[in-house]
Amino acid sequence: MRIAVLKAVHENSAVHAELCPINSKTRNKMKNNLLIIYVSILMLVASVQKASSQAPIVQWQKNFGGSASDFAYCVIQTSDGGYITAGQSGSSNNDVTGNHGGKDGWIVKSNSAGTIDWQRSYGGTGDDVIYSIRQTVEGGFIFVGGTTSNDGDVTLNNGGEDFWVVKLDNDGNIQWQRTYGGSQDDTPFSICMTADGGYIIGGSSYSSDSDLTVNQGALDAWILKVDSAGNMQWQKSFGGPAYDYAAVVLQTSDGGYILGAGAGANGGDVSGNHGNGDVWILKLDASANVEWKKCYGSNGYDDCYNFIKTNDGGYIACGVCSANNGDVSGNHGGNDEWLLKIDSAGTIQWQRSFGGTGNEFGNAIVRTLNGGYATCATTSSTNGDVTNNHGGNDDWFLSTDSTGHLTSQKCFGGSMNEDAWSMIQTNDGGFLMAGESLSSNGDVAANYGGEDYLVIKLSDLNTGIALNSFGPGGVEVFPNPATSATTVSCMLTINADVFMTLTDMTGKIISRFMEEGIVGANSIQIDLKSIPAGLYILNLENGIESFGNRVIVQ
Fold it and tell me: Which pTM was predicted?
């Protein structure tokens, strides 16, 4: 439902007025005669950070689909180095087989070059869609989407659209599937694995029956906790009298949860709303009791479309803003992409608006290997922060430093409309964007009819950070990629304690430890046997600066 609303908003900004409806610092043991070394290093770091990154270039692009409309809403990298792109397809030809009737959830598994390994359609004779997919620890996949079907791959429907969770093996075969909801429309947007091996799911609901116990009015944010087999453990609704939803639900280090959400108006669980829709963040304990909740925005249309953890223990929301008051400043006109950085208690650290006089919508955000952020958005502008739009809506890549200052931007697309809904940073340091396209020119090589899945592989940001070295002290990670262990070799000239933190790409801390008095060619081995395959960030703090490098677990 959120995606459908966003599509309408992208095409007609006048709709907005009616919507309202989406990481202890190391103590330094350095001597005074090392001050000159400090200053030199800091100057070097500052000079590197001052330079803007070069925008990435297209390494390859692929269209997947058939003669009807096909929309890609989520992309992930898989443990074999390939990719899974998931969304919805109404086609039954060209790349698409096995359609059950109406629109199906559709998965395309490709290799690292974008060549299709396999594809599968999931659903029944109603309309089915996949909004979020994750690879599981054992190597299969789990997705969440919406379904109106009651046949085919779907064994139960409670009425209207239901949350639909499907567990797959590595080849895409269904292992189990469950539906959750009530008699009205219930639409999920995200699924996240939890520490106990289960899953937390977030979305929206109009219902107050069947699996739901309460509705505050209109559309509520609804979160659902299930075990590893999909059995419901608990559920909870949050909202007010207008339109509220949970775009992303993440588990926090204390065992609780945090919701990146949207709130339409004050009342019920919502307070401090600025008017006409706000970004709404809720911190919950392990039993889903509210610890704190805050609204952020202006008297215009402000919304949260994506939400991730940051290295400092805080969070960053990516979405849209449309005014210059309240918590928002720097709007360029119309709808801008909005980044909102908060600390662990929800206090605003900074916010930035990006765009031009057209409309921009920030749909996904990732932490980058150089310590900043990158987003994928949709833009119709040709001015302000936006250059070289190809016509209509373009996919818009944007990167910032750690404090949200723009370092690079670039439009990708053709003369028709493109929308980028999902983006990841890939194992090679580049990026992969996924969405849909109507074009067959510019950056888009072909179109099979209607909208196609559009997957664009981008290079890295050309920051000069090599794969196996980083920082002025010279630190190497070898082997990299690694399987069961890797070694960090530190060539530091300063004797200092070093904190080492390994985090995944959502900001979740996987391991953290301290090594005392690192100096010279000291080597530290990191055990990776219990860590799932994927891309991780290794961060070192030596009292002078924080340096990061990628660690690839295979």
Answer: 0.80
